[in-house]
Design brief:
By secondary structure, the chain is an alpha/beta fold. The protein is built from eleven helices and 23 strands. The chain has two domains: about 130 residues, Immunoglobulin-like; about 350 residues, Alpha-Beta Barrel (TIM Barrel). It is globular.
Length: about 500
């Protein structure tokens, strides 16, 4: 490795805690889109599947991620999905008006709950606010959560589930502010719809936690929150930072995408007096937009677009680095961000690529694994002084990108500190000087690093570990520790002190 071209200074104030990392922070998303469900997590008849049809290799990989939540069944799909089509012994295919393809309905609520239980995730159900009604959503709560002789509780029992599923997390609709969405709403009617749906859902189960989506349009969001804000526990926001063909430098130029989106939503909640009462669910996120066949107007869908998502060469260290920046932002805003969901979990642009012969763990998988296993409860107040380098956005605008992005978490009672540092530079290493004033560090710290041979490194069927996690040690002295981080890398240092 060449001599360091840059030096990052990181100062941790052990006495100042920004807040606590929430239990729902590291979540995921699944939609009935191409092979996320069928051929992804669910493949009846496959030698890799349980008798129930759930893929065992996928289950094992997801368990290692310690998923907090999984959001399902959409996404745009949900706005023409009726949950009753996917329960019971007799199921008929229906036409998916969002993606304009046939939905077999063999994977529904019961199968999703079973998958969540297998992987240890809390189910997060998204209701149909497009072609559906508040009553239909409240009936779904009844099916999942009610015990007794009511029609929908008995329907669940008749389907082999006597005990309630006790689903706590619910989203009222998806992106119903957008003209691409089936059953899109205008601002005034959307606020009323959310208010009435929340009212009916809480009359079935007053313990549910409710979310509804916010747009990037201030007028639309204000109308929603003024009409229904007091009914909501979570304000859901979505974001895809760059397009599928963005280069490494264009991708890292979006380093602050999540930071801006979260700050904007915090200000919105403050504006309407809901700061501290309602929190943020960044419940659909990926560094890159998906390739999809098109769902607007009269254009004929181009179904070849599905297959472009299966090209593992497009999921590189750029995705890993930008996703780490996203998680760092969510952690820094732990007081307001309650939940995040990588979109999706499997296939499309997911962390896991499932194929007939097995699975491939894409670079973002290793970032998710590292953060879930290494970050600690207390998010610390941290001063970071990092140099920058020049890049440009997809639109061609020049931007200065910080060489390093960092967040520090701790378990102070046990003297444990976790320092997550991402080196965004495509080619140069980064020397990081870490200072914990007043603490006496143990002589050595463990360093876990996600990287590959070059910025374009990716994992695929014939080379599944080009990007992986490596572990090493670095020396510490007194209250300081210095580590040299490779280019295009995501790193977590585990320190102990007294």
């Amino acid at each position: 490795m060449t001599a360091p071209a840059a030096r990052l200074h990181l100062h941790v104030d052990w006495d100042r805690c920004l807040g606590t990392r929430g239990p729902l922070l590291f979540g995921y998303f699944l939609e009935h889109f191409h092979r996320q469900i069928y051929g992804g997590i669910y493949q009846p008849g496959s030698p890799r599947s349980q008798a129930s049809g759930l893929r065992t290799d996928v289950i094992e990989a997801v368990r290692r991620l310690r998923p907090a939540t999984i959001r399902w069944p959409g996404g745009c799909f949900v706005s023409s999905y009726h949950w009753r089509d996917g329960v019971g012994p007799e199921r008929s295919p229906s036409y998916d008006k969002a993606w304009r393809t046939e939905e077999p309905n063999t994977f529904g609520t019961d199968e999703f709950i079973a998958f969540c239980r297998e992987v240890g995730a809390e189910p997060y159900l998204c209701g149909n606010a497009g072609t559906g009604t508040p009553e239909e959503m409240s009936d779904w709560v009844e099916y999942c959560n009610l015990q007794g002789q009511s029609r929908n509780a008995q329907l669940r029992a008749g389907n082999g589930h006597r005990d309630p599923f006790n689903v706590r997390l619910w989203s009222i609709g998806n992106e119903n502010y957008g003209d691409w969405e089936i059953g899109a709403h205008d601002a005034p009617e959307w606020g009323r719809f959310v208010r009435e749906a929340a009212k009916m859902m809480r009359r079935v189960d007053d313990q549910v936690v409710l979310a509804a989506a916010a747009a990037t349009d201030l007028d639309w969001d204000l109308a929603l929150l003024r009409a229904a804000g007091t009914e909501l526990d979570l304000l859901a926001i979505h974001g895809y930072a760059v397009h599928g063909d963005a280069s490494y430098l264009q991708t890292v130029a979006a380093f602050d995408y999540a930071e801006k989106r979260i700050t904007q939503t915090e200000q919105l909640l403050e504006l309407v007096g809901l700061s501290g009462r309602a929190r943020i669910a960044f419940d659909e996120w990926n560094p890159r937009f998906w390739h999809h066949p098109g769902h607007a107007g009269r254009a004929t869908p181009d179904y070849s677009e599905w297959e472009r998502n299966d090209d593992n060469a497009t999921y590189t260290m750029a995705d890993a680095v930008l996703h780490a920046c996203f998680l760092n932002s969510a952690l820094r805003h732990c007081r307001s961000v309650a939940m995040t969901n990588l979109s999706p979990l499997v296939n499309t642009r997911g962390a896991i690529y499932a194929h007939e012969g097995g699975i491939v763990l894409r670079p973002t998988y290793h970032v998710c694994d590292l953060y879930a296993s290494s970050t600690l409860p207390d998010v610390m107040d941290t001063y970071v002084n990092a140099p920058s380098f020049a890049s440009q956005t997809e639109a061609g605008s020049p931007v200065q990108v910080p060489w390093g992005d960092a967040v520090v978490t701790a378990e102070r009672a046990a003297g444990r500190t976790s320092v997550a540092i991402t080196n965004l530079h495509p080619e140069e290493p980064l020397e990081c000087a870490i200072w914990l004033p007043g603490r006496s560090l143990e002589r050595a710290a463990e360093v876990a690093t996600v990287t590959g041979p070059d910025r374009g490194s990716f994992n695929d069927v014939d080379h599944p570990r080009s990007v992986d996690v490596t572990r090493s040690e670095v020396g510490c002295a007194g209250d300081r520790c210095t580590v040299l981080l490779p280019p295009h890398s995501v790193n977590v240092l585990s320190l102990r002190s007294e």
